């Protein structure tokens, strides 16, 4: 687990404030603090844990502010390491909480469905994807799904200005990692808060939830969002401030690297499907992963299957794979590209 770095003054009224994620290999999430005459605004809040809350409160003190002074917080997306403390922050400061409407809708949905119902639904998806009964039983006996954050009270659309007097901070909608993921462009400061959309070394997870959904194309949206990065004003002069790892420059090149990784993965899957029809379990378990498939916990296998499902959906959209159903299990097979006339 990485060491949690210190609070850092990045200049021009911007601070990085690492908030720990106890017991998680990610280690921490960078919460960014933007100061202003009407009170600071946060980018993300961090994980919902007493240790995390204490780090947020003490870190704000290092910036010269009390938590009660926080004007608002923009959540880059609904994942708990980014949004978990939103409710506690709002109670302590009466701050507004903003997020893209697509992720607000996800948060509302997750909050309306009991955790046990969500777990049973995931187990059913694994079963219909060809996962062995042992994995399904392990998931049903495992930890409860995460509790969603408090529902934000402000919807922040693409291009909208954040309520931060004296600064030009605007939302850049980058769907893929989640339906409503936001980057935030500080136009007057030459910075881009990239959330989990662009990270300097690791490739963000892009999965399809539910696994066997008949709608949506998260990976297609994600690749379109990556292409958008190079079209931002002065893209390669921007200092990129991600939620994990370290800040970086060279936004266009990094987005192209991430895109190339996914294109390579798509080619690998198309090659597997050319050998014959395969279930989601069969495709996922035959791919190479950073950790050997046999050593993965079932929760990690679920995430891997969601990523595989997103790639299969894009292959379908490109006309390179076809999905059918046999014996109650969906299967995919490669479709040869149409030959151009001579």
From TrEMBL:
The cross-references to Pfam families, in alphabetical order and at most eight, read: Lactamase_B (PF00753)
**Which residue stretches, if any, does this entry annotate as coiled coil?**
none
Question: Any idea where the Metallo-beta-lactamase domain is?
Answer: 28-244
Alphabetical list of InterPro entries matching this protein: Metallo-B-lactamas (IPR001279), RibonucZ/Hydroxyglut_hydro (IPR036866), Sec-metab_biosynth-thioest (IPR050662), WH-like_DNA-bd_sf (IPR036388)
Q: What is this protein called?
A: MBL fold metallo-hydrolase
